[in-house]
Every structure is written in C-alpha cells, then in structure tokens.
C-alpha cells in the first residue's frame, strides 16, 4: 500500500488551529530553517483511512492468539484504558506542586506497595520505562551499593547462558564485565560453575526464575546463597513473574533487586513495542540508592516527595510512564489478593496443558512440568524433514496465530518458545494444538509448502538480508 | 474478585487432569517448598470493574487540573487533534508487540518507517530510530555513540534541562564516563569557556546542548558545533520538535546526533509520561544508532515490504559489549507523533511554532508591563524567565486560584514561563492583571 | 473556517474545467436565479477544531452532572461495562450505513442477528426487529400491528409512562386511531374497569400496558392479558429489559407484542438519547413487525450468511398503504445493547436486576424511617413513589446541594424514586439523613 | 464465523458488578421468570475478539469510498465524537430541571437557529430521530394545520413517482391518501399533472429538490405556487439538502415545512443504520404545532422550556437523539458561514466530475448538470451484455468500493445512483471512475464473471429469496 507521503496533495490539510490572536513574531532570521520541510498533506478523511488500512495490516492480541514466549501477551482489559483516559490523570503537569497532584502520587504509592507485596521487596521505583531499563536501573543500584561501601573491585556480573539478551547488554551499560555461566542439561544453573565463577570481583548475578526455558530453578536458594556468600548481590529479571505471583516471591528466593514488566505481568498493552514500564524493587538496604522522587506519606497525612540520600539520580525525566502505571494499578485493584495467584496458576496450567498435548509429536527441550511457558526444539524435525523452527512459525501465520518466540533461548537449537498466558480459553489452546500438529504433518508430507509459508498474509517472506545490506530507512522526496 | 481468566473452575479441573496433575498444588510441586509463599498475599480483595473504575476516578479527582497552563520545562501543553486519539486507540496498534513477524505486522512496520521519515525531515537527518523512552534518555544514550577509545569524556552545557543532565549523569555513572558541565553566560552556553575546556581536553567525546535551551533562549548552535568539531568531538543537539518546523535544523547546524522529546507531538502532559524520546543522525552514524529501526525491502514476490533491520548492533550480537540495551521502546508514542505530524502537516506545525513564540512574546511584554523583569536579554522561543519580586509561591498561588498554572518556580524569586498556541490573549491578559495587582500590592 | 473538503482550490478549478464549467457559479446556473441565495448565510464564521472543541466543552460544562442519581422514569443509570464503549466506537460499525450490501456487511448483519436473538431470549418471543427510535415509538408502532378492519380502537393503561402515552396519542392523531386510557386503581391498572370497557367495545384492537408500570409497581400482566384476549384484542406489553432477566416474560404473560426501551442496556442517560426502541413478537405476528429484520441464509457457495429480509412489508411494496415508515433506526444502540448483554451474561443481568430492586427496597425503608410515606402498597421493582410533606422542590434542592439527583417530582408533594446497582448503601443512607433532617426541620 | 452464542462456555463471565451491599430482595414468585434465559457466556477476551472479527467483516466510510446515492455518506469527523463524549452531555438525565441543563438547552437552541438559517425556516424541532420520522412529523404539522382550521376535507398528499419510498409511507401513517404524479422526461415535476392533481382535497405536496434523479427542479417556484394556490402546503424532504446549503433554501423555494437528516448533511455517523436525527423546520404559522419541548431564551437570560399552544404532542420521548445533535452542532460550528456552502459546492462538483468522466460509456438517466448525485441507467448495457445494475454493483465490491444505490429511483430502469459527497478527494473519484470503466469492459468481454461477482468478499452472493421464504430470524438453543 501507499506510504502516507504518497497520498494526498500539496495544500490539503485539516482545520485544527485558530488564527493567532496576538501579533505574529517570527523566529529570528539567523535561527530560521532553510531546508524545506516535507510532511504529509492530507485531509482528515485520507489520514483516517490510511491508518485504518495500516491497522488492518497489523495483528494484536485482540486479533487472535499471540503465544510469544517471554513476552506475556495477555489480554489487555478495556477498563485500564478508561482509567488512563481520566482528565485528572492526563491533564496534570509533571512539575505541579505536591498539593495539586495527590491523586497521581496515590497511584504511585499504591502501585509500589502492591508490587512490594507481590515481589517480596521493601521499596520500588516506578521510573524505569521498560524491562531493559529496569535491568539497567537495578544494576546501577548494585553498582552504587558496592561503590558506596568502597568495594570497587566488584566489576563482574554473572549471567547464565540462557539469559535474556538484554541482561548482558544491561550489565555492559553499567560498566560491568559479563561472566557467562553454562546451564545444566536440565536448563538450570550449574551450581559448580556458579561456585567457580563467584569471587571477590563478583558484583552480582542476574537471573530470571522461572528461567528462560520455562523451568523453576529448584536450587534457587542455593544459588542466591552462593552469590551472597561471595559478597555479590542477586538481581531478579522479572520477565517471567507471571508464573509465580502469589506462589513464590523473588524476595523470598534471596533476590536483592528485581524489575517487573507492567506491560507483561500487569496487562498494560504492548503498543507495538511500547510504552511499557519496568519498575524496580529492592530490599531495604538498597532503598537509599533508588532514583527519582520517592512518594512518602499516606492518604490521611497527604503524600509528599522524598529523594533518597544516596540516590543514583534519575533514569528518566519525571515520574516514569505514568499512564502505564495507572493501567497496571487498575488491573491490580481488580485482581487483588485472590486474582493475582489465580492469574499465575492459570498461566502455568495453560502452558502445561499445551505442552502435554504436543509432547508426543514435538520434542520438548525439557520434558517436565514447565511454568508459564515451554520450549520445543525443532531440531529433530528439521533433521528429518528440513523444516525449521522458522518454517513452522511462518506456517502458523496462515492459521491466524502469532508465532512463538523463535530461536530463543540460545541454548536450545531450533527453539520455539510458547507462552499462552492465562487469558486464553481452552478452545484457543486446542486450536493452536491442532494447528501445530497439522504443521508437523505438513512438514513431513510437504516440506516445500512450509519453506515458502506464509501464503495468506499481505506480504510473503521479506528479504531481511537485503534490507540490512541496502538500507532504505526513510522515504525520500524527489524534489 | 476481578478475573480475566476465561476457563471456569470445571474446565481448569479438566485441564489439570489432562496435563497429568491432581491439583494446582501438585502442578506447582516443582517449586521447592522453602520458597513457596505459605500465606495469601497481603493485598485487598479484588474489585469488580465498577468498583475499580470508581476508585480510579476518585483518585484522579484528587489531582488539580488547570484550565490554563503556562508551564513547560519539558512538558508542553500543545493542542492534540481529535484524529490523534482516534487512530492511536485502535486495538490493532495498541495490543500488538514489537513487529518481529513482518508478514502480519506490515501496518506497524510501515507506521514506524513513516515516523522515521518524518523525524528525519524535522531534524534534517538521514536516519532516525523507532524511539527512546524520553528525550532525557535519548540524550544520555547519545554519549556512547560519540565515545571511542580516544574520546571518553562527555560535555554538557549547563543550559540543558537539569532533568536531562541528571539522567545523563546517572547513565554516565553506569558507563564510568566522565561528564563535565559547561558553564553558561547570560543564559546561554559560555562559548569561550567551552572552547577552552575542549581545547584542554584531548579526550573530549562530545558536547550535548539544548536548542532552544532550558531558559527558552536560542543558542548559537552553528557556532557551538564549529567549536566542538574543531576539538574533534561530536556535536549533539537536544531539540524541541515543534520549534524544528521553523528553526535551523540540527543538520543545518552540523549536528552529529539530534535528540529530543516528542511529547509536544500529540501526547498529553499526563504527569510526565509516557512521552517519546527521538534520535536522528547522519548516515555516517547509522550503525551506531541504538534502538529499533525499520527498513524497506521486498517480499518473496517482489512487493514492497518493511522489516526490523540493523538488529545486529546491540544485544543480539556481542551483547556483553553493547552500549545500549533498549528493547521495548515507546512505539505507540511514535505512532502518536506520526499521526500528529500528518494531521498538522508542515504548515500546521509551523503555525503551532509561530503561535507559540508569538504568544510568549506577548506574555513577556504583558508581564513586563505588569512589573516583572526578564532575567536574560537573549531572543527566546516559547519559554522565558522573569524575576518575581512578590515571591514565586505567592504569585503562583494567586494564579492557581483562578485556575491558572503559572510558570515553573526556579527559585523563590524566579519563574520560567511557557506558552503554546493553546494560550489565548484573554488569559494572558488575565495573568498580567493578576501579576500587576500583586506587584502593586492590590488583589486582582 | 473549518473544512472537510480535501480538494484544494487548484484541484477544484481543474475539476470544474474538466467537468465543463467555468466556475461554481456556472455549475449552479441550473438553479433558477430567483431561488438562489444572494447573500452569505447569517452564521458565525467557521471555527478551527481547537475552537470548536473548546466551545462544545464549555457548553457541556454548563450542565450539572450529579454523582449520585435516584431518578429513572424512562432513563436509568445502570453500570456500563468498559468493553461496551470500546466495541461500539469501532469505526467499521460507526461509519457504515444500513447493510444493504450483504457481502461487505456480514459483521453488521451478524451483530443484528445476534441482537434479535438476545431480545427474543429476554422477551421469550420468536422474532424481534432491528430497533425502533425508542420505547415510546415502539409502543406507538405496535398499535397498527393490532388493528384490522374490525378492530380499530386502541387502549392504553394510564399506568404507562406519560411520555409513552403522549407519543401514542400523537401517532394515533396521525393514523386517525381512537386511543382510550384505562384508569388505574391503587397504582395499577383497574382491571374491572378495563374488562368492562373492552366488553362494551367490539372494536377494541389492543391494550398497551407497562410492566413494571410507571410507578414502579408490578401489574398482574397475566390477568390483564387474559382480559384483553377474552375481548378479542391484542395484548401489548411495554417492559424494562433489565427486569426481564428475572421477571415473567411477555411470552409467559401471553403478550402479542413486547416493546420497550433498551437504554438500560449500556446506553448513557445522555439527556434522553440516543436510546433504543425494541419490539418482539410471536411468529404469528412476524409479517406485521415493522422495521428491519435480519435473517440467516446461505451464500452461493453454501456458507452461512446474513441478509436483510422480509423487506417487502413496508415502504418498498404498497408503500402508500404502509403502517410504518421506519427506515433509519438505532442500529448502533442495538449493537450497544448486544455488547452489554454479552458482557453481562444471564447471571450479570439477573444480578443487576436483583441489586436494583434490592436497593429500591432498602431506599424505601430508609425513606420511610426518615418520614416519607409510600403512596401505594403494591410490590415494586426499582421505582416507587412517596409523598414529600416538605415539598418536592425543597427536598430535591437539598439533595442537589450534595451532588445527588433525587427522584422525579411528579407533583409538589410527590416524588418518584429510582435505584440501580450503581447506588450504594452509603449514598442511600445519606439521602435518608438529608430527608430526615428536612422533615424534622433541621439541616442535614 | 461463529455466532457469539457458539463460543465461550457455561460459567465464563466478566467481573463487572460488586457484591450487593444491602439485603437481597427477589422479584415475587408470582412475577418471576420461569423460562431459561440464554445469553452469551464469554470472557472479556473472547467478547472483544468476537466484535473485532465482526468489525473486520464490515465496510464503513472509513474503510473506503461509499457513494451510496441519497444517503450522503460523507466523512464523519473525529471531533464530533469527542464532543459527544463529554461527561457534561452523556451524564445528564433528560428530566433534570432547566437550571441544571442549560448546556444541553444551548446545544438545542444553537442547532435550531443554525438549521433555520440554512433551511430558510422560522422554527425547528429536534425531536425526530430519523429522516422518515421527520417526514411523519412534518406531515403531522400539515395535518394539524388543516384540522385546526376545520379544513377536514384535505386528505390527500401529492407525491411524485420519483419520490423516496418513505414519502408515501409517511403520508399513509398520517392517514392521508397518496396521489402519485408522474415525472416529466427530464425527471422534473410535470406541472400539468400537478395542476390536475391539486384541489380542495389537497393537504400538501412532498418533494425533494434537488429531486431523486439528482436534478434541481427549475420550476420549483411554480410548483409550490400551484400547491399553495390550491390551499395545500409544501413539504420539503431534506434528504438532498447537501447539494444546496448556502446556495438555495427550501424556505425561499416556497416550502412550508422541511426535515433535515443530520446523519447525512451534517456529518454525524450512520452507525450501521442509525441513530440519525431528522429535525423538522417550519414557517412561523406552523410553529404552534411543533411537538415536544421548545427551547426559548438565550445565554444571558437563561434558557427555558416552552410547549407550543397547539402542539401535536410528542413524536419521541424526551429531546430527540441528543448526542447526534451534539455531533451535528460541532460540525456546524466548524463549517460556519463559509464552510457550509463550500461543502455543497464541492458535493455538486464531485458528482458532476464523476458524471462527465463516465457519460461517454454509461448512459446517464439525465444528461445534464446534476446536483450532488447522478443516476445512470444500465438498461442499454444489460440489453447488450446481460449484465445488470446489480452485477456491476457487485463487481464494485471486489474493488473495495461500496456500490451506489441500486434500482432507485424507480422511474429509471436498471438505475445506479452515485453520490460521492464533498469529502472525497479527486483520486478516490478517479479510482472509482477507472473501476466503473473496467467493469463496463468486463461486462462486454466476460459477462459471466460479473454475474457471479463478488469474488473477493467474505461471502458470495447470499440467497435472499431463501432467507425470506425459510425465515431464520434468531439463533435457537437446543437445550
């Protein structure tokens, strides 16, 4: 379809602004723009239709099953959107004085308190805007802790080889060296390798539990103890928290800091890539390093801002992705004490249900109870038929199903990582099971068809190599 | 309690059985008993939708929303066209994630490609990424792009938004980067001092400056760029996207990286977020640009298609050496900015910019007549600073009583004012008369 | 001025030329000069979107919205689930028209078919149409369905909503139909008088009654139906759709037509509209049902498909003998009702109904204790009438001061109260204490 | 796709209402429901996806060109929706006292005043909910006028044979006899036939001008004079007002009463069939008969309700489709003095542009300047190729274009009536022209393909005869 620059015509426009009611002042000549500015010139009708077309060429959770492993694509309740649209939230300036933003501060306080209870932490900051941003923030806390104690030789962060790609990247951004430790055959941390890796240069460990292969590491208490005994801190990557809310808490597993993805676990929409929110929680001894304004007080005495004594500063301007937080709090209020563990229980149930309905055909990377997601290895299928994980993923597109995460974690060959979430009804799981079984059969009977899948989408497989080689990253006007 | 689990208790029982479990407890037996939470969460019981929405509405009403806003300082109250909300509320955009699967994500991918194009047009640059968390983090992330083995020290003008500087400091704490502030003179970057500082520092990697600066004043960006480049460092400009429609572009000023906050492009002030960090650069910096980028290509039938590209730069490859970890970004805000710019068009953007600066000048004149004095004489865009002899708090309280959010108090006697096209002559006259009354000791 | 014309002046010029005109004036030369308007319209100049939205918002703020509402009488403040607005705002539903072209309108057609099904379920009937303008017009349009050569006189109980009766009167003035009101006794239809009136009138075509009636009281509908049928007339029930989830259905009461207003099913009170008229009937009345109806069929490949059907009944054939002219209806309101009912489910509907009546009983008890007296002793659903010895206006003003919209004043000393699941015990206690204070002569 | 009754399962639900906080009271046994109530049982996710699917199977103005003649499917500005969503409008009860609804009353007053000026009328009622409802109301005014004067023999309404189908139906609902008069060859009223039809039994004439073949009746002043001279009144069907706003006014043409479709002319959305609004205007001498509450007063003195002395009563409960009126007023405020005639001028231009780009191929029913719409007769094409108006219309579906109105007006054989509206850009018209020309060629080259069109829609041609014969009008549960 056309780009928005290819429709409309010069002079078309919307009628948005009134005439200026004061004398016109121009930018001084020395400061004024010389380059022509090309922007779309369309009427509202054309604009509206353009984006309607784009919307039809997109697939959201609302359009069907979206079992993208490690992304927790759960249903986004509409009530969240209503809460986030209240004028009282959208219409306040971030730099208003405390007296006039008691509502926003209450939102922050309530969200922090709820997250503390769920994660088993003592304090939270809502400033980080995304999961990776939370990792960065959490590691800065760890860094600040060691620096504050004058323990400057702790320069290494231990990361299992199954980790999310952002973990080592976050560590690198914090100036740490990354020590990668291998996983055992069962996908869990190799305790001996960990013992061998820790030392007086250990700043900390980054881990997610359940881990990225979907298993709960049974040695978790030993793991965190090994790190603590060596003087390091333990950071919990909350990407997989949806499996264990109300069942087990990072704080109780021995973690010192944690980030949580509100856009995964707490149902705020993913927005095509963001905005999310990656609040960071910590134990009491790390609280003094938290960034940004901390909200203290309560409803009765009023809320006030406080800045931690040894704050790392700020990881973002203002108070985080506030409207995302509003959505998450709305969800938390609805779930409450009973609903939070119910969500996790069913996330895990849905994953195990799918796993056991597929494990006779597909090879499971780890053939045991999984948490909220599970990983299949398509290596045997590929060996037999030449059909890869990518081919099966593309085949799913023709069933109207968003493919699972492909080729992650890196320690599983031809990985497909499936996370159904708790908001999918049994029938949707059954349909996906039927589709995956059919694709297995098709891989055996007619592998060629799968190599060229998908067949029913608005485009076929794109040339990604060409895109990276011959980069076209913007539309160019010819005039 | 509220629940979004569709399966009924009976269905859950059946599924447990089919998966080989006796109960949820049985299923969770893989979790060591020592770490199982043995008590219910200490949270209130869940609410129905009706109760939750009421509670959230009541909380929202504890905030004071002002009818007239004269505060900016990083959050600008521009007009948001009706079409913007309507488009960005489409659930296909709202409920999807990063477009990993191009075949069913052409809509999102094309919208990002269009966004990149518009940001390139605004800044005059060749490439733009798909978004940062906000302007401050974009500024902070520009530093590693400019660093190399020999150039390790970052400079920032003290006329940059203090919030931006703080975020840069925090990021630099992380990356063990020395960050040096360049002093200001008469409300703009002190060029002489800058030249000297850079000359004395062979390790200087970059200067980050803001245009118009935190005080609203135009810097001589071209000249600053020359000084920086002479010292062999990179020149990073943090810019206001509305102003860009009428101002010298970062490209025209010779910038190596342009960053900024896209909030003015259709996002509500919303207590500070979500906003939009943007970043653009010349082609030479393309492979240093962090974050996601969409490229044009063709599909297997030769049709035009869009994909995420240049993904090899960060956490995917050599991730332990990554200089950025950005993954989730502010995609829906980028879409918002695109729809805003498409709705406004070049003429509309220029009109918003011109009205914003015109009104700032009208307000400054009116405040001068009312008895306030500007702190600096430099030409300004839509923000400016005055003294406040009657005390900032007293003045702001008097305005608040009339439903007006006055400028940002920088000190007890200094206020940073801001206008946009949303401020009418009538309300500015009202502000001036309240000020005049206070200054003269009479009530308005 | 505001404009939604995309083509630019230049494009308009070109098109005029290509179409063979020198100018717009030339194009309009086919309009006789004597009827051309020779002056500009006497209207204000057009506004920009920003100005228009501001003006409309300011106008809207001149209304007083109450936080707590105890007024019904045809407009009920039930909870509207979040999903309802989200679905009904979808532009594919909003911007389409009557689904004349089935191939590209299956979505709208299926949604109407589902709506018809749900209305049939609620009423117990076999067929329902796609909507009327509101409950009152649906009631008025039921009369022609019941008339034939021998049966020409319509009866309506005086316990029907007076607004409904007025609309029926107006429609009957049009169709030259005699409309007779049946008196009430103790707040319900006087059955003895009704029996006598019908017995004396061989031309009686139908009785229209309301259940629960205007005063909130349950009529003995089954008995009324028997009386009406004995007289050879048709029995029309006007019903509350929320109450239907727990009450005897019109089918169970032997009704020949069920009508009502669907506003409680997810529509805001919104100063009276748009609301939703619904109508359902047994199969025997199918071909008399006015308005649009969707039917199931198959397409040329045998797939299930939906189409407008039974269109031959009205203006299309024998249009000069039509008994209804309905064409545009309230389709989006019917969709709203469908989404509402699907969201609530049968259990949710029953819960809303039960809470509404439970709260009405609680309120009546509280008001009794506070000193007001119920006017009737009959069992009621969610509305009831009390006296108001201190004067309706005084009482309502006292409530309004606390943000409460009290019941509808029927006279200077009589008030019709209403509750829904939205009213909390706390606010009802507050109402009672305000009333008690007024009655005892003290301020609350 | 599945009906909503065919998805979900017993017991699934949303979490909407709180527990009851007062003692439960049940409906008395004698009044309680015995029949089982079947409604959907779905989770919010399933519900949301169901309607997303339905939306994708619908085509609105926002999805593409919709030149449905006589329906004025213009673009629906988004600003209208924002105005209609203000709590101050949605949250007020229709029976609040005047003091508390001054805003709503101002909306009504401003809308009435604007419509008066555009239509050349003296008063308006906003009570009617649709065009046909307006016709009914307008005819009741005429009836009341004659009755009031004791002129009870005026029982006939004259309607041209080109009229909208609702006209005679509305007349019938008002107890009038309908006298149909033929049109001339040029599509206009046959003056002689009219003279022959009027008499002392004439209650009035119903006419739209421009008429239903898209032409402005040049004899309009003579027509209304003939009727007036005979003692009848003239009613203007405002369905085609979009052609002449600010150009010519019904009041100046001699009409005594008029209805206007806000959902056509004033850009409020059609909503899949409604709600619309059909305000009725009249000259001063008819004002006393207007239904409902009339809003008097102004912003300064305040607004108040008045009831006309000889009011016909009410045609609807309360104050009309109020939120539709809010949308229309927003649009009127934006267009204003200049924008209103601009809209009509371009509506007429777009129609004539399309007409002249097609008239070499397609036979125009009237080959002269049209107003905002034009009628083609496919009779010659059908004669030559066997391809009917229906076939061409169905062929357009495969181009993503909503077909024109088919087989109306009745006086043109194989009619297709095209109304592009002013909100369509030239390119959209050009694309439709190309499509219609291609279809003409296809009709000649390959008529069979068109007989079975459409080919790319979610269903093929439905069996309408079967639907009417074997009526299935609701889903039936088997339990």
What does this structure look like?
The complex is a heterotetramer, with two copies of chain A (479 residues) and two copies of chain B (444 residues). Chain A has 479 residues and is an alpha/beta fold. Chain A folds into three domains: 4-60, no CATH class; 79-336, 3-Layer(aba) Sandwich (Aspartate Aminotransferase, domain 2); 344-465, Aspartate Aminotransferase, domain 1, CATH 3.90.1150.10. Helix content of chain A is 38%, strand content 11%. In chain A, strand 12 (405-406) and strand 13 form a beta hairpin. Chain A is globular. Chain B has two domains: 68-76 and 345-439, Aspartate Aminotransferase, domain 1 (Alpha-Beta Complex), CATH 3.90.1150; 82-340, Aspartate Aminotransferase, domain 2, CATH 3.40.640. Chain B is built from 13 helices and 16 strands. In chain B, the strands form five sheets. Chain B has a seven-stranded mixed beta sheet with strand order 2-10-9-8-7-3-4, sandwiched between helices. In chain B, strands 13-16-15 form a three-stranded antiparallel beta sheet, with helices on one face. In chain B, strands 1-14 form a two-stranded parallel sheet. In chain B, a hairpin with a 2-residue loop joins strand 15 and strand 16 (414-418). In chain B, helix 4 (82-88) packs antiparallel against helix 11, helix 6 (106-123) runs parallel beside helix 11 (331-370) and helix 11 (331-370) crosses helix 13 (425-439). Chain B is globular and about 80 Å long. Chain B starts with 8 loop residues before the first helix and ends in a 5-residue tail after the last helix. In chain B, 64% of the residues are buried. Classes of the chains: A alpha/beta (479), B alpha/beta (444). Chains in contact: A-B, A-C, A-D, B-C, B-D, C-D. Chain A binds chain D through residues 7-9, 12, 15, 43-46, 48-49, 52, 56, 62-64, 75, 77-78, 334, 423-425, 427, and chain D through 7-9, 12, 15, 43-46, 48-49, 52, 56, 62-64, 75, 77-78, 334, 423-425, 427.
């Amino acid at each position: 379809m056309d780009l928005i620059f290819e429709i409309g015509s010069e002079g078309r426009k919307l009628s948005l602004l009134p005439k200026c009611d004061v004398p016109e002042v121009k930018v001084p000549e020395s400061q004024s723009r010389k380059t022509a500015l090309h922007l779309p010139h369309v009427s509202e009708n054309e604009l509206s239709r353009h984006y309607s077309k784009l919307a039809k060429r997109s697939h959201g959770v609302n359009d069907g099953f979206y079992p993208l492993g490690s992304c927790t694509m759960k249903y986004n309740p509409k009530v969240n959107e209503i809460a986030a649209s209240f004028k009282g939230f959208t219409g306040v300036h971030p730099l208003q004085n405390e007296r006039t933003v008691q509502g926003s501060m209450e939102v922050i306080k309530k969200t922090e308190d709820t997250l503390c209870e769920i994660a088993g932490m003592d304090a939270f900051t809502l400033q980080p805007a995304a999961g990776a941003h939370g990792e960065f923030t959490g590691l800065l806390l760890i860094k600040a802790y060691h620096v504050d104690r004058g323990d400057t030789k702790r320069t290494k962060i231990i990361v299992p080889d199954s980790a999310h790609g952002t973990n080592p990247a976050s560590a690198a951004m914090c100036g740490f060296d990354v020590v990668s430790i291998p996983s055992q055959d069962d996908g869990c941390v190799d305790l001996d390798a960990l013992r061998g890796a820790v030392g007086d240069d250990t700043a900390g460990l980054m881990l997610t539990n359940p881990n990225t292969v979907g298993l709960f590491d049974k040695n978790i208490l030993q793991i965190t103890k090994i790190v603590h005994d060596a003087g390091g801190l333990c950071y919990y990557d909350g990407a997989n928290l949806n499996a264990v809310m109300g069942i087990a808490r990072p704080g109780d597993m021995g973690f010192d800091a944690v980030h949580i993805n509100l856009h995964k676990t707490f149902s705020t929409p993913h927005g095509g890539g963001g905005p999310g929110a990656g609040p960071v929680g910590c134990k009491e001894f790390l609280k003094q390093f938290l960034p940004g304004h901390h909200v203290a007080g309560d409803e009765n005495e009023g809320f006030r801002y406080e800045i931690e004594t040894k704050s790392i500063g700020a990881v973002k301007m203002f108070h985080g992705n506030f409207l995302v937080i509003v959505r998450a709090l709305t969800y938390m209020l609805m779930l409450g004490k009973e609903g939070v563990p119910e969500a996790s229980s069913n996330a895990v149930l849905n994953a195990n249900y799918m796993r056991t309905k597929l494990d006779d055909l597909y090879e499971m990377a780890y053939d045991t109870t999984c948490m909220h997601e599970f990983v299949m290895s398509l290596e045997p299928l590929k060996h037999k038929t030449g059909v890869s994980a990518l081919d099966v993923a593309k085949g799913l597109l023709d069933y109207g199903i968003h493919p699972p995460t492909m080729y992650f974690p890196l320690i599983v060959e031809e990985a497909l990582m499936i996370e159904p979430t708790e908001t999918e009804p049994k029938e949707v799981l059954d349909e996906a099971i039927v589709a995956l079984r059919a694709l297995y059969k098709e891989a055996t009977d007619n592998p060629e068809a799968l190599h060229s899948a998908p067949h029913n989408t608005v485009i076929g497989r794109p040339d990604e190599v060409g895109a990276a080689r011959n980069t076209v990253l913007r539309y160019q006007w010819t005039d | 309690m509220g629940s979004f689990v569709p399966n009924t208790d009976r269905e859950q029982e059946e599924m447990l059985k089919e998966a080989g479990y006796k109960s949820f407890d049985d299923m969770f037996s893989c979790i060591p008993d020592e770490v199982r939470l043995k008590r219910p969460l200490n949270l209130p019981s869940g609410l129905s939708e009706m109760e939750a929405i009421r509670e959230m509405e009541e909380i929202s009403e504890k905030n004071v929303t002002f009818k007239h806003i004269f505060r900016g300082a990083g959050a600008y109250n521009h007009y948001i066209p009706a079409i913007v909300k309507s488009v960005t509320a489409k659930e296909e955009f709202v409920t999807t994630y990063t477009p990993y699967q191009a075949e069913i994500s052409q809509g999102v991918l094309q919208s990002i490609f269009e966004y990149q194009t518009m940001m390139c047009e605004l800044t005059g640059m060749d490439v733009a990424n798909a978004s940062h968390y906000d302007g401050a983090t974009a500024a902070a992330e520009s530093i590693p792009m400019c660093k190399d083995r020999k150039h390790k020290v970052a400079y920032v003008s003290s006329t940059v938004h203090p919030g931006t500087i703080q975020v840069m400091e925090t990021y630099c704490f992380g990356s063990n980067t020395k960050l040096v502030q360049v002093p200001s003179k008469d409300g703009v970057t002190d060029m002489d001092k800058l030249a000297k500082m850079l000359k004395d520092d062979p390790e200087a990697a970059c200067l980050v400056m803001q245009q118009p600066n935190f005080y609203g004043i135009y810097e001589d960006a071209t000249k600053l760029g020359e000084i920086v480049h002479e010292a062999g460092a990179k020149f990073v400009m943090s810019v206001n996207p509305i102003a860009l429609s009428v101002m010298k572009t970062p490209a025209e000023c010779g910038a190596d990286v342009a960053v900024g906050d896209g909030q003015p492009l259709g996002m509500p002030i919303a207590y500070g977020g979500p906003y939009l960090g943007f970043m653009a650069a010349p082609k030479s910096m393309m492979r240093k640009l962090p974050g996601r980028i969409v490229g044009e290509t063709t599909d297997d039938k030769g049709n035009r298609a869009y994909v995420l590209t240049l993904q090899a730069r960060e956490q995917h490859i050599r991730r332990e050496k990554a200089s950025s970890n950005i993954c989730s970004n502010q995609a829906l805000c980028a879409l918002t900015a695109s729809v805003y710019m498409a709705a406004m068009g070049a003429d509309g953007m220029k009109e918003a910019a011109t009205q914003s600066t015109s009104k700032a000048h009208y307000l400054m004149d009116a405040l001068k007549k009312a008895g306030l004095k500007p702190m600096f004489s430099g030409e300004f865009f839509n923000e400016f600073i005055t003294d406040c002899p009657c005390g900032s708090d007293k003045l702001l309280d008097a305005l608040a009583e009339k439903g007006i959010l006055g400028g940002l108090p920088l000190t007890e006697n200094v206020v940073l004012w801001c206008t946009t096209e949303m401020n009418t002559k009538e309300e500015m006259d009202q502000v001036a008369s309240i000020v005049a009354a206070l200054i003269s000791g009479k009530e308005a």
